[in-house]
Amino acid sequence: MFVKKDGAAKIYFVGAGPGDPELLTVKAYNVLKKSDVVFYAGSLINPKMLDIFKNVAMLIDMKSLNFDEIKERFESLLKDEVRRIISVLHAGDSSIYSSINEQMTYLEEMGIDYEIIPGVTAAFAASAANRSTLTLPDVSQTVIFCRGEGRTGKMPKGQDIKSLAKHNATMAIYLSFGIIESVVGDLLEHYSKDTPCLIAKDVSLESELLINCLLKDAVKTAEEHSVKNMAVLIVGDALRGKYYKKNRSKLYDKNFSHSFRLKEGG
């Protein structure tokens, strides 16, 4: 059980968002500014983000470290009575496809205080950059975050792409362009070949790539633009939202009452 001690070190897991430093939350920015040490994955974090704290913090690139080596550095730093605020910067949001679970387990066992600060995940940033939404009344009220099966482990039963596609909800598929042909084949089992897709890579960076296409063309389009990994594929009819004039929210409908407003004439 963790017992907070005065003057003890604290570790922050900070979601870096999709890459643009301006998409950090204010809380994330403030924590990074006051951090004494920042761990980050050099293969995933935009170098411009390091400019926020490189003059005040010790930077430790984790891209070539294994978990035991990261623990060794934690333990060494926790003996330091000067460096009390340590941040671990993760791309996107720490709650999805990150590696903080084993780090949290370790910190819990050691009784070390920690906090998680959320970030903007790529699917949200991609949808915003594309001027689209992921849900739409009467079209899709569900968003599925998922990935194809890769080297990091098998999918739990019922959570493979083909099974999830049965719902015809909006799907945001991460980390799967290495197997895009298989992914699209599974999607086509349940989605129309003319279902809209968004291929989004390097969202919010200068190299941002946003391509709208139909599901039947997704493999060819990804190949033409050399999209191989670290991109997100969004699939679903909600992407047509701005062209669907009848699918309106009830929130501002003049004929709909709610707790703060009566319908017109009501």
TrEMBL record:
Transmembrane segments: none annotated. Coiled coil: none annotated. GO terms for biological process: cobalamin biosynthetic process; methylation. Its EC number is 2.1.1.133. InterPro entries: 4pyrrol_Mease, 4pyrrol_Methylase_sf, 4pyrrole_Mease_sub1, 4pyrrole_Mease_sub2, Cbl_synth_CobM/CibF, Siro_Cobalamin_biosynth, Uropor_MeTrfase_CS. Residues 10-217 form the Tetrapyrrole methylase domain. The keyword Nucleotide-binding does not apply. The keyword S-adenosyl-L-methionine applies. PROSITE patterns: SUMT_1. Pathway: Cofactor biosynthesis; adenosylcobalamin biosynthesis. It is an enzyme of class 2 (transferase). GO terms for molecular function: precorrin-4 C11-methyltransferase activity. Keywords: Cobalamin biosynthesis, Methyltransferase, S-adenosyl-L-methionine, Transferase. It comes from the Bacteria. Belongs to the precorrin methyltransferase family. This is Precorrin-4 C(11)-methyltransferase. It comes from Candidatus Acidulodesulfobacterium ferriphilum. The gene is cobM.
